[in-house]
Amino acid sequence: MLIISAISFRETKKDKESSSYYEMLLFIAKNLQIFFKNNLSFIIGIKAGNRKENTMSEKPRVAGCTTIAPEVIETIIKMTACETKGVNRVFVSPSNSGVKIKIEDNIVHADVYVILDHRQNTLKVGKKLQNDISRAISETVGMEPGCINIHVEDFDFPTTETVK
After folding, report:
1. CA distance 99 to 136
2. What integer pLDDT is reported at residue 162 of this predicted model?
3. I need a labelling partner for 49 at 20 to 30 A (CA). Which of 19, 33, 132, 145 fits?
4. How far, in Å, CA of 20 to CA of 9, rounded?
5. Is 99 helix (H, G, I), strand (E, B) or coil?
6. Whole-model pTM above 0.90?
7. How many alpha carbons fall within 13 Å on the CB side of residue 120?
Protein backbone atom coordinates (compact mmCIF):
# COMPACT_ATOMS: atom_id res chain seq x y z
CA MET A 1 0.00 0.00 0.00
CA LEU A 2 1.35 3.42 -0.90
CA ILE A 3 0.40 6.47 1.12
CA ILE A 4 1.40 9.98 0.12
CA SER A 5 0.65 12.55 2.75
CA ALA A 6 1.08 16.30 3.15
CA ILE A 7 -0.10 17.11 6.65
CA SER A 8 -0.60 20.60 8.14
CA PHE A 9 0.45 22.32 4.95
CA ARG A 10 0.31 26.08 5.27
CA GLU A 11 0.66 28.14 2.16
CA THR A 12 2.09 31.60 2.80
CA LYS A 13 3.07 34.38 0.46
CA LYS A 14 6.72 34.06 1.49
CA ASP A 15 6.92 30.30 1.12
CA LYS A 16 6.68 29.55 -2.59
CA GLU A 17 8.78 26.36 -2.26
CA SER A 18 6.14 24.74 -0.05
CA SER A 19 3.49 25.55 -2.62
CA SER A 20 5.51 24.00 -5.43
CA TYR A 21 6.34 21.01 -3.20
CA TYR A 22 2.64 20.44 -2.58
CA GLU A 23 1.80 20.81 -6.27
CA MET A 24 4.53 18.30 -7.11
CA LEU A 25 3.15 15.83 -4.53
CA LEU A 26 -0.34 16.29 -5.89
CA PHE A 27 0.84 15.75 -9.49
CA ILE A 28 2.78 12.59 -8.56
CA ALA A 29 -0.07 11.21 -6.49
CA LYS A 30 -2.64 11.77 -9.23
CA ASN A 31 -0.43 10.06 -11.80
CA LEU A 32 0.29 7.17 -9.45
CA GLN A 33 -3.41 6.83 -8.75
CA ILE A 34 -4.12 6.51 -12.46
CA PHE A 35 -1.30 3.98 -12.76
CA PHE A 36 -2.20 1.85 -9.73
CA LYS A 37 -5.95 2.41 -9.97
CA ASN A 38 -7.59 0.80 -6.91
CA ASN A 39 -4.35 -0.32 -5.27
CA LEU A 40 -3.43 3.13 -4.05
CA SER A 41 -4.46 4.70 -0.78
CA PHE A 42 -4.27 8.41 -1.45
CA ILE A 43 -4.49 10.88 1.37
CA ILE A 44 -3.61 14.51 0.87
CA GLY A 45 -5.00 17.20 3.12
CA ILE A 46 -4.54 20.93 2.95
CA LYS A 47 -4.78 23.00 6.06
CA ALA A 48 -5.00 26.69 5.31
CA GLY A 49 -6.28 28.54 8.32
CA ASN A 50 -9.53 26.84 9.34
CA ARG A 51 -10.36 25.63 5.84
CA LYS A 52 -9.68 22.00 4.99
CA GLU A 53 -9.93 20.58 1.52
CA ASN A 54 -9.55 16.95 0.53
CA THR A 55 -8.59 15.85 -2.93
CA MET A 56 -10.42 12.55 -2.49
CA SER A 57 -13.31 11.48 -0.32
CA GLU A 58 -12.45 10.36 3.18
CA LYS A 59 -14.52 8.56 5.77
CA PRO A 60 -16.39 10.91 8.10
CA ARG A 61 -15.38 10.84 11.74
CA VAL A 62 -17.96 9.42 14.08
CA ALA A 63 -18.83 11.57 17.08
CA GLY A 64 -18.74 10.02 20.52
CA CYS A 65 -16.28 8.53 22.96
CA THR A 66 -15.10 5.13 24.11
CA THR A 67 -15.05 4.45 27.83
CA ILE A 68 -13.09 1.54 29.27
CA ALA A 69 -14.09 0.37 32.72
CA PRO A 70 -11.22 0.11 35.22
CA GLU A 71 -12.19 -3.52 35.82
CA VAL A 72 -11.41 -4.28 32.17
CA ILE A 73 -7.92 -2.83 32.55
CA GLU A 74 -7.45 -4.87 35.74
CA THR A 75 -8.50 -8.04 33.90
CA ILE A 76 -6.06 -7.34 31.05
CA ILE A 77 -3.26 -6.83 33.58
CA LYS A 78 -4.17 -10.06 35.42
CA MET A 79 -4.24 -12.06 32.19
CA THR A 80 -0.90 -10.60 31.12
CA ALA A 81 0.64 -11.42 34.50
CA CYS A 82 -0.58 -15.03 34.37
CA GLU A 83 0.85 -15.45 30.85
CA THR A 84 4.31 -14.22 31.90
CA LYS A 85 6.85 -17.00 32.42
CA GLY A 86 7.72 -17.39 36.09
CA VAL A 87 4.41 -16.12 37.44
CA ASN A 88 2.28 -18.92 38.88
CA ARG A 89 -0.72 -16.79 39.71
CA VAL A 90 -1.98 -13.40 40.80
CA PHE A 91 -2.23 -13.08 44.58
CA VAL A 92 -5.85 -12.59 45.61
CA SER A 93 -7.11 -12.14 49.16
CA PRO A 94 -10.39 -10.89 50.65
CA SER A 95 -8.94 -7.37 50.87
CA ASN A 96 -6.92 -7.48 47.63
CA SER A 97 -8.07 -8.31 44.10
CA GLY A 98 -4.49 -8.81 42.92
CA VAL A 99 -4.31 -5.60 40.89
CA LYS A 100 -4.80 -2.02 41.96
CA ILE A 101 -4.86 0.66 39.29
CA LYS A 102 -4.93 4.43 39.31
CA ILE A 103 -5.78 6.35 36.14
CA GLU A 104 -4.65 9.95 35.74
CA ASP A 105 -5.39 11.66 32.43
CA ASN A 106 -4.51 8.91 29.95
CA ILE A 107 -1.86 7.24 32.13
CA VAL A 108 -2.42 3.92 33.93
CA HIS A 109 -0.47 3.27 37.14
CA ALA A 110 -0.70 -0.27 38.52
CA ASP A 111 0.26 -2.31 41.55
CA VAL A 112 0.31 -6.01 40.72
CA TYR A 113 0.52 -8.68 43.42
CA VAL A 114 1.89 -12.03 42.23
CA ILE A 115 3.07 -15.43 43.41
CA LEU A 116 6.12 -16.69 41.55
CA ASP A 117 7.55 -20.10 40.77
CA HIS A 118 10.37 -20.82 43.24
CA ARG A 119 12.88 -21.66 40.48
CA GLN A 120 12.70 -18.27 38.76
CA ASN A 121 14.93 -15.22 39.18
CA THR A 122 12.71 -12.72 40.99
CA LEU A 123 14.30 -9.61 39.51
CA LYS A 124 14.15 -10.90 35.91
CA VAL A 125 10.52 -11.99 36.28
CA GLY A 126 9.61 -8.62 37.81
CA LYS A 127 11.21 -6.67 34.95
CA LYS A 128 9.64 -8.96 32.33
CA LEU A 129 6.28 -8.54 34.02
CA GLN A 130 6.63 -4.73 34.02
CA ASN A 131 7.50 -4.77 30.30
CA ASP A 132 4.66 -7.16 29.41
CA ILE A 133 2.07 -5.16 31.36
CA SER A 134 3.29 -1.85 29.88
CA ARG A 135 3.00 -3.30 26.38
CA ALA A 136 -0.48 -4.69 27.09
CA ILE A 137 -1.70 -1.33 28.40
CA SER A 138 -0.38 0.58 25.40
CA GLU A 139 -1.31 -1.95 22.69
CA THR A 140 -4.55 -3.43 24.00
CA VAL A 141 -6.09 -0.47 25.79
CA GLY A 142 -4.39 2.36 23.90
CA MET A 143 -3.41 4.22 27.05
CA GLU A 144 0.01 5.16 28.35
CA PRO A 145 1.58 2.99 31.05
CA GLY A 146 2.80 4.82 34.12
CA CYS A 147 4.40 3.24 37.19
CA ILE A 148 3.98 -0.52 37.12
CA ASN A 149 4.84 -1.81 40.60
CA ILE A 150 5.28 -5.55 41.05
CA HIS A 151 4.74 -6.98 44.54
CA VAL A 152 5.99 -10.54 45.03
CA GLU A 153 3.75 -11.89 47.78
CA ASP A 154 5.02 -15.47 47.87
CA PHE A 155 6.67 -18.34 46.01
CA ASP A 156 5.09 -21.65 45.05
CA PHE A 157 7.17 -24.62 46.16
CA PRO A 158 6.37 -28.16 45.12
CA THR A 159 4.70 -30.27 47.78
CA THR A 160 6.59 -33.26 49.18
CA GLU A 161 4.22 -35.63 47.38
CA THR A 162 5.12 -34.24 43.94
CA VAL A 163 8.89 -34.29 44.68
CA LYS A 164 9.06 -38.12 44.76
Report:
1. 14
2. 56
3. 33
4. 12
5. strand
6. no
7. 22
pLDDT confidence of residue 157: 87
φ/ψ (deg, to 5) at 117: -70, 140
β-strand 41-42 against 3-4: which pairing, if any? Answer: parallel
Residue 136, φ and ψ in degrees, nearest 5: -65, -40
Domain locations in the chain as residue ranges: 3-54, 70-163
Taking 90 as the threshold, does the pLDDT of residue 121 lie above it? yes
The residues pairing with 113 across neighbouring beta strands, listed in sequence order, are 151
**pLDDT tens digits, one per residue of 24-56:** 656 666 655 554 444 434 343 433 444 444 445
pLDDT in tens, 68-99: 899 999 999 999 999 999 999 999 988 889 99
Strands (DSSP E) found in 63-157? 87-90, 99-104, 107-117, 144-156
SS3 call for 31 = helix
CB neighbourhood size of 36 (10 A): 13
How many Å apart are CA 104 and CA 76, to the nearest integer? 18
Amino acid at 15: D
- pLDDT at 2 (0 to 100): 40
- CATH code for the part of the protein at 70-163: 3.30.70.1350
